[in-house]
Design goal:
Blueprint: E1 2-6, E2 10-17, E3 29-37, H1 39-48, E4 53-61, H2 64-75, E5 83-86, E6 92-98, E7 104-109, H3 118-121, E8 131-137, H4 142-154, E9 158-162, E10 180-181, H5 185-192, H6 199-211, E11 216-220, E12 226-229, E13 234-237, H7 250-263, H8 268-282, H9 295-308
Parallel strand pairs: 1-4, 1-8, 2-6, 4-5, 8-9, 9-10, 10-11
Antiparallel strand pairs: 2-3, 6-7, 11-12, 12-13
The structure holds alpha-D-ribofuranose.
Length: 310
């Protein structure tokens, strides 16, 4: 079958520095590079690298970044027939700083992503029938997101929402359209209104998402693993140890690979383990799409992990 991603495509402008400057301060960085990113495109690449047919619906600008972004997606075998070149505007960009410990902070300038509207949804309708999942994030306007989520729900496709970047509140009628929601601790905290600083808080947040109408809530806890809950089951996905140098796109790897694993017929818990491994492996390399693992890397890591823990 196949996966559809409706979302953002950015060029990431990445600065590496030993520490972030305080307000009004200048610090020297030690490296700068540009690399294809955007939460939508990253999730599409993560799924495609797992060998699943993946369609991306979105927009790039009529600039040189747009050409580079499309060429990269083509090379990585993401179907981009549904990506529009919006020649009146620049492509989306993300200004990213990565500190020595691998933590990052990101400012996204939406550019063409901000122009997505219900007309873009038309490019998704013909491919819905053969899809198993629709992946959404919040770097494009909410109105077309609600439209596609409604369409996918009617078509019986699994709707996966990564609520990133998280607003203070999402429309109440969006939650019942979501099969799987995947906030990290910060995003979950914004949406439920209390800090997620221990396991109990993660469980409580997950329960709130279920009460709001979501079928499966997954709270991504970074290096501490993830908590998941459905009406009938819940539990922790363990952290998978790696030497992290850069956390950019780890969450995207989780979502893309989890969706691909579900498409390949794995159970929810198996898919969550694959997603968590992909997220961990992504932190071991620099960049966004350049850091995403392929099928062999995920399965090799899993076999090694099982052997080491027998
Ligand atoms: O999730 C990581 C992504 O967030 C980056 O690639 C950047 O483009 C921003 O969208």
């Amino acid at each position: 079958m196949s996966i559809i991603v409706f979302g953002s495509i950015n060029m990431d402008l990445v600065a590496q520095t030993s520490r972030l400057p305080k307000a009004g301060e200048t610090v020297l960085g030690n490296n700068f590079f540009t690399v294809p990113g955007g939460k939508g495109a990253n999730q599409a690449v993560a799924a495609a690298k797992l060998g699943v047919k993946t369609y991306l619906i979105g927009r790039v600008g009529g600039d040189i970044f747009g050409e580079e972004l499309l060429e990269n997606l083509r090379l990585l075998e993401v179907n981009i027939d549904g990506v529009l070149i919006d020649s009146n505007i620049n492509s989306g960009t993300a200004i990213i700083t990565v500190e020595e410990e691998g933590e990052n902070s990101i400012i996204v300038i939406p550019g063409a992503n901000g122009n997505l509207d219900d007309s873009d949804v038309q490019r998704l309708e013909p491919i819905l029938a053969n899809a198993t999942a629709l992946l959404l994030q919040l770097e494009v306007p909410l109105s077309p997101i609600q439209t596609v989520a409604n369409l996918a729900k009617k078509a019986g496709i699994t709707v996966i929402l990564d609520p990133a970047p998280a607003p203070d509140r999402l429309p109440d009628d969006l939650y019942p359209l979501i099969d799987i929601i995947t906030p990290n601790e910060t995003e979950a905290a914004r949406l439920v209104g209390f800090p997620i600083n221990n396991e109990e808080a993660a469980e409580k947040a997950a329960q709130i998402f279920l009460n709001w109408g979501v079928k499966t809530a997954i709270i991504k806890l970074g290096s501490k693993g993830a908590f998941y809950a459905t009406k009938n089951q819940s539990g922790f996905i363990p952290p998978f140890p790696v030497k992290a140098i850069n956390t950019v796109a780890a969450g995207d790897a989780f979502n893309g690979v989890m969706a691909a694993a579900l498409d390949r017929g794995l159970s929810l818990v198996e898919a969550l383990n694959w997603g968590a491994i992909a997220g961990a492996l992504t932190t071991t390399k620099m960049g966004a799409q350049t850091a995403l693992p392929n099928l062999e890397e995920v399965t090799n890591y899993l076999s090694q992990f099982i052997m080491n823990n027998q």
